[in-house]
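Section 5.1 Outputs to date
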Amino acid sequence: MTDIIFYHNPRCSKSRETLALVDNEQHSIEIIKYLETPPSVETIQTLITQLGFDSARQLMRTTETLYKELDLANEDNESALITAMQANPKLIERPIVVANGKAALGRPPESVLDIL
């Protein structure tokens, strides 16, 4: 059984640092390269809840060019924001670690230790 689900972007330094930290904890890890295998709308909704976020926007990379191109700053519909992340996983903040029914963003990497 997998102890941890890790939404990973190997090109991201914070994602690599967080993975190294989690891997040192000797857990069974399922690594999901979310840019290649985007999470479903339902999974994104679950992640938002597990992270304790009030809005989908809190899970979005609002500095991405794509965020501006899609005019998501002016989008108030939560479902539309989640659908945009599912269709364009580059918009999802990273890395996300899920363990023990909770999730944490690895920014900074040490912040995930609380859920392990």
